[in-house]
Structure formats: C-alpha cells, structure tokens
Fold this sequence. Notes:
- Chain A is α/β, with parallel strands linked by helices.
- Helices cover 42% and strands 24% of the residues of chain A.
- In chain A, the strands form four sheets. Chain A has an eight-stranded mixed β-barrel, surrounded by five helices.
- In chain A, helix 5 packs antiparallel against helix 6 and helix 11 (341-356) runs parallel beside helix 13 (379-390).
- The radius of gyration of chain A is 38 Å and the shape is elongated.
- By secondary structure, chain B is α+β, with helices and mostly antiparallel strands.
- Chain B has one domain: Alpha-Beta Plaits, CATH 3.30.70.100.
- In chain B, strands 4-1-3-2-5 form a five-stranded mixed β-sheet, sandwiched between helices.
- In chain B, a hairpin with a 2-residue loop joins strand 2 and strand 3 (53-61).
- Residues 105-121 of chain B have low confidence and may be disordered.
- Bound molecules: flavin mononucleotide (FMN).
- Flavin mononucleotide binds at residues 30, 33-34, 36-38, 47, 54, 56, 58, 68, 71-72, 75, 77-78, 99 of chain B.
- Flavin mononucleotide is lined by residues 30, 33-34, 36-38, 47, 54, 56, 58, 68, 71-72, 75, 77-78, 99 of chain B.
Amino acid sequence: MLQILEPDLSQTVILEACDLLPGGFAIIERNGAVGYANSPFRSIFDMPDDPDLKLLLENVCGGDETLSSKLRRGERDFTVSCRGVSDGRTLVMVAETAVVTVPAAVERRDGLTGLPNRVVLNDQLTEALRGPANEAEFALLLLDLDRFKTVNDTLGHPIGDKLLCHVVDRIRSCVRDTDLIARLGGDEFAILQRSPKQPEAARALARRLVDLVGRTYIVDDHLLNIGVSIGIALPPADGADPDRLLKSADLALYRAKEEGRGRHRFFEQEMDARAQARRALELDLRRAFALRQFEVHYQPQMKLADRRVVGFEALARWRHPERGMISPAAFIPIAEEIGLISQIGEWVLQTACREAAGWPDDISIAVNLSPVQFSSPGLVTMVIAALRQSGLAPERLELEITESVLLQETAATLTILHQLRALGVRIAMDDFGTGYSSLGYLRSFPFDKVKIDQSFVREMPSDGDSNAIVRAIIGLGVSLGISTTAEGVETQEQLDRLRAEGCTDIQGYLLSRPIPASGVGDLLLQLHS
Amino acid sequence: MTTEIHRIVYFSRNAIPGSEETIAAEIRQILESSRRNNTKADVTGALMFNAGCFAQVLEGPQSAVTRTFERIQRDPRHGEVLVLDYGAKSERAFANWSMSFVGRDLREKDLFGAISSETGFDASRLSAEVIFTTLHRLVVEEEKSAVG
Ligand SMILES: Cc1cc2nc3c(=O)[nH]c(=O)nc-3n(C[C@H](O)[C@H](O)[C@H](O)COP(=O)(O)O)c2cc1C
C-alpha cells in the first residue's frame, strides 16, 4: 500500500490535486448520497440531483466489479465506470470518450461547401449495403450541374464558387437529415437517400431538385441560370457494392444528359449493355485507325445538262475484321466524340486528294468536313498540305460542310471558310433541309453548291412535302446562282422529276454505289459510253 | 450612409392545388409572412395574383432582397419563376408597403388592361416595365380610394 510519506501533506493539498485530475470522480455513500465529487465531475453533472446521475447510480453501480456505461451529455460523450470501495461506498469515474480523430492524410470534407466528400460517400455506401440485400432501403442519386462551366469560364471562379454554395443550400433544403449529400468534384454531387419507399421517394426528390436547382440565382449583381441532370441507381438490383452502384448511377446520369439535360433517369440494364457495346466500338475504332483499316470509296456525281461525270464524293469506309464494312453513319459520331475525327478526316482528305490527282483533269473530288474539324486549329494548313503533297489543283477540290458547322461561333467559322475559298477550293452545303435549314446560313457565305439530302429525294415521287422541299431548294439554288446536287437518286423517275425541276447534278445508286479508287477508270468509261 | 436600393421583378406560375378558397387562404398566409419578414428586413414591394400567375416586385438593400428572393424561390407554392428585371435603382417605388397586394378585390381580368384581354394574361409576354408600372399604378390607385 502506498503511504502518505509526508506528514505535512494536508488533506487540502490532496483535494486540490483531485480537482486538477483530467477525469471526474465521486464517492457515493451507502445511502446513495454523493459523499465527495471532484471539480471535473461537478462540471459534468448538476450536483446534487442530476437525473442522469441518479439513473447511473441505480443502473450501473453496486457490486465489486467495475461496470461501465456510455453517457451522452450535449455534444460530448463520456464513459462512466463504477466499482465498490471500502465501507459499502461506490467510486464513480467519468472520462470523456476521446473523439476519434481522422488522420490528416484522409480528407473527408470538401473545403468550399463543407460537404462530405467521396471518401465519406464510399464509407456510408459500404455501410448501407451491409446486411441482408432486401434491407438496403436507399437510393443513390448522382447530380451533375448543367452549364456551370460556362458561369465559371465567363464570370470567374469567385462567382462560380458562390453559386455552388447557393446550389448546395438548395439541395440541402430538399433532403432529410438522415440523407447524405457529398460533393464528388467540381460540379458533381451525390445523394444517399434513405427511404424505404423506393423508387417513388427518389423520383420525387429528383423532380424537386431539377425544379429547384434550375430556378434563377442571384449572385452579387448577376442573375444566373443553371440546371441539373440526375442519374439514379437502386440497390441491390443496380449494384450490390459501392463501385457497381456508382457506375450504374453514372450510366443513368450519362443518359439523362444525352437526352437533353435538366432531367433525371433511373438506371436500366440496357444502358450497361449499350455502354459496353459502345466502349468496344471505341476501342476497335482506335485500333482501326492505328492499323489503317479505313478505306476511301468514291461515288460519282453527274451533271444533268450533258450527262458527264463531273466529280466523285469521297466516303470513308471502315473494314472491320469481323463485322465487315461499317458505314460512316455508324462510326463518325463516335469518332467525333472521342476526338478521333480530326485525324480520320485528315487521312481521308490526303488519300482522296492523292488518288484524285491521277484522274482526268475535269473530274473533281468532294470531301466532307466535320464540325469538330472547324473548332480545332490548323484546318486551313491541313488543306494546303494535302493539296501540295498530292499536286491536285485547288479548283478540283470541293469541301462539303453541314449547317451545324455554321451554328458554332459564326465569325471564326466564316473566316476559315473564306480562307479556304481564297485557296481556290470550292465549298458545298451538305444535307441541306435536314437540320435548321435556315436561309440565313445559305446567305451567310457564298456557297458554290447545295446538296439536297437523300431522305427527300427518296420520298419524292410519293410524298408531297418532300416534293415541295426539293422544289424549294432547287429554286433557292437557281435564285442564288449556284448548282444543286441531289443525293440518293435511285430511279429514272426521280431523275426525270429532278431534271424537270431544274436540278443541275445528281449522285446515287442509279449511277453507281461508292467504289474503291481502283474501279474509277472503268466506271468513267462505262458511264460515258 | 444610405445603402443602394436593389429591385427585382419576377413572375411565376401558381402551384397551389385546390379550390379558390384554399388558394385564397394560402395567399393570405403568404402575405402574413411577407409583411412580418419584410418589415424586419427593410424590404418593400407589391405582389399580384391574377389568372394563375404571381407577379412580384421586391426592393430594398441588396443582401435583404437577395435573401428574401432566395427564400421565395424555394417555395413550392409556385413554379417556373421567371426573373424579368434585377438591378440597382435610385429609389424605392413602394416605400410605404411591406408587401402590397393586388388581386382578389379587383376585377381580375382588367388588371393588365388590353394586354390581358388579348392574350388571356400571359405574364411571360409582359416586360418588367409593364408589370412594374402596372403594379405601381394599381397600388397607388388603391391607396387613393382607401383614403378618399
Ligand atoms: C409568390 C410568393 C411570394 C412571396 N413573397 C414573400 C415575401 O415578399 N416575403 C416573405 O418573407 N415571404 C414571401 N413568400 C413566402 C416565402 O416563400 C416563405 O414561405 C416565407 O418567407 C416563410 O417565412 P415564415 O416562416 O416567417 O412564414 C412568398 C411566397 C410566394 C409563393
């Protein structure tokens, strides 16, 4: 036993020391009264009649072994333990439960909005997915803000940051305390909505969010309008682990954006299949370009006045090792999206110019340009290089563009078009009538030619509307003094009608399908005989 | 120091379901909140309810107007909120009204004169200027008749 060795050490000093201990303790008398309590203990409980203390003494204390229990007071958690001491008294000790501090390396909150981040979302998803599958009563919503980037780019990050905080406020006002909102990235959020009534609860929340987040914001002196797209996944069908569930929600989000943004979509299995097929095609396409599995085929265009072939349109073909020939309609959109179109386009242009350079001098070559090529620098340089390398006279090259090219930054686009024209190259408006069909576009630049989309030509004999459209476009060409080429001409009847309306040129299966360069010589002989 | 006055003019579509009485009761409740909160926040203005649409003018110190408008934006009792005008103004137009109301007690269809009879009141076709001046005129008229 430890003796008090220093006789001068008074009780006062000992009691003083007791008050300085980090933990609280008290001695309870046999009759339940508090015999002594040190200062930390007194600061935790309202002495002497604190109801929590009473409860503790009744339930926990008594007996010789140490018993402990947890206690929450306000925001603080305590561990209380009791054990019997001499004379039937009880010692009660209280210590604040250490707050588990996260190592600084793992950031769990987003600095700007104070929201939990991806780490927390993952933890809580894991937690929520534990237990029997049929008890996973929650939905995962992924949110992506529409047009937020424009705000950031045009008004700067300080305004963008303030806007984000407003958005988060609105999102907070839509969810319950038990739901989790996490910020995953710049303008990406996730909500873990805990509710047994799925999918109704998720649908209601998504609708409310699309409405509310899409309403006008005032930030400083600016009125700002953004929107939100939402993808929703429900466990366990859409994923039984966090990664799978997030992926499903992401695919649904992708679809919501694809369908026009400002809306929500639930995940469907079919989205996964589609995404996989697409990914496979993407990989194939990259490989195909590396291996030069592309070919250029040529379809003749004939002038109706003297029935002479005046040129060919170059059409990219993809010879897939397993699937055979794949048409441009199937792979060009993907090539545009994954940024491969400029390279494919350049290769087609070079190839077409080189092959056409060997044809008779009065035969021209038409090559399509994608809108994407207009927004990447160096288009004019690329055309100059193709002409120089092939030795093709610029007058023999015709570049076909669609109306969508003119939709983007018109001033810059028009400059490029004028530069191309200055080289001596001709410019044709392709697929006219299918898109915006604005006369304004035709007037905005001196096109050399308008091409009438094959969908109208095909319907022409039977469909009155198509007839009227074809007639209007031809009339337009006449009034602007430019030639008109009808695409997709398959029958003699179509040809006769087109000629009667004043169409100047035709292209289509009636003359020939697109053929490899090796067949061009023979085809010319055959068509001119 | 006088703080700069900001004014916002918007219109929105009623989303209160139910009978005319229900709507009237909700609007009464909105006006009660408005008058209580706006007085405290130094916000003044006018609210109009007509043919299923709200039009409102709010004016006051910028932060108060922004905060009030943000709260109103979140109110599920209306939707399709379209802001027609927002900016600093030299003075208040509704200085005496924490939230003046125009609607029930006036012959509804005549509020916007010829415009409403021609178009069946489509506030989205009205400019901020028209809504603002109309509200202002109506509020002033109403006050005159109350006094006289
Ligand atoms: C068309 C419309 C106009 C409103 N105008 C105001 C207003 O001017 N001031 C205001 O405080 N609340 C206004 N509200 C009500 C707010 O949306 C919100 O319900 C209210 O401010 C809540 O405050 P309370 O809790 O003090 O009642 C309006 C609501 C609607 C639908």
